[in-house]
Amino acid sequence: MSGLENCKPMSSWFKRLDTRPIVISGPSVVTSEEQLLATARELKNVDQVKIFKAGAWKPQTTAKSFGDRGLDILQWLNQVKQETGLLTMVEVASPKHVEMCLRHNVDILWIGARTTSNPFSVQELASALQGMSVPVMVKNPINPDINLWIEALETINKAGISRLAAIHRGFYPFEKTRLRNIPKWEIPIELKSRFHNLPIICDPSHIAGAIKYIPEMAQKAMDLNMDGLMMESYSKTGDALINQELQLCPADVNQVLRSLVCRLPSIDDVEENLLEKYRNQIDSVDSQLIELLAQRMNIVEGIGEYKAEKNMTILQLQRWEKVRERGIELGTSLGLSETFLTQLLRMIHKEAISKQNEVMNRK
């Protein structure tokens, strides 16, 4: 039996974490003391924001360009605590980071996706945390590997950390998709079904990758009964060194939070979560199917342009026969019926011809 059953609810971490959703917000990368303090002061006025996060060290930046400022940022965060009363939270990626954060009274630590993906790095952090009581949050790994995520959580838990939470920030897509990260909601649902006591925070900013999708992702997290949200925020979003496209100003954070509908869990929550798990698996696969079909049609248009330039006919019968035969062979080996596959491939081929025809007509 995993030790994660001793995880404590976030309401017991600190007195102020007694509402849902628990909201974490702040800049991904700190550009200056003025920017940090301005953002914190504005977020203080957003009632639901209880934790102020800031990146003191970021994997996307080089040590030369950013690492030397970590100590300054930790000192500025102490001023944030004194002036606003917000709890502070910093990402750690090495034992040295842990030591510096604890020395400067950072309230909560989080482990980033890249670090979670490396069991050796997680073990180093766990060793540095041995005997400490600081709360720790662990982001999911870059790839959709629930066992790797659980391994990281258990490693930190075995170091004596019972104030522990998971952060769902989605998974790296190998092809361009509507969202920056593929949510694969079924994975955090499965995590919660295995470890009922483990709090789960959603990071809609990194899943969305664009401001317009953040409210949708935040609402989805609430519908799945997640414990809280973690959102990127800058007082002046144009100052962000990275990921400007997903940065909210504090007023926007407030607007997103005010738009949320937070429902009570149903009486049959366990059964409902099981059903929701299957539904989300279907939704995840459907989204990927549609995005792959859109990518296929984009390629088809490129082929249409090539055929138009070379004065070739749209229908290449031998090629179509090969596509159909290969598709049926693969599909039937995976348990799909030949009738279904034939109809599906014909529909895709029909749409491909239509797309190429449009290209030809434009020429």
Automatic annotation (TrEMBL):
Enzyme class: isomerase
Limits of the Chorismate mutase domain: 269-360
GO annotation terms (biological process): chorismate metabolic process
Keywords assigned by UniProt, alphabetized: Transferase
Gene Ontology molecular function: chorismate mutase activity; transferase activity
PANTHER family: PHOSPHO-2-DEHYDRO-3-DEOXYHEPTONATE ALDOLASE, PROTEIN AROA(G)
Identification of the protein by name: chorismate mutase
Taxonomic source organism: Labilibaculum filiforme
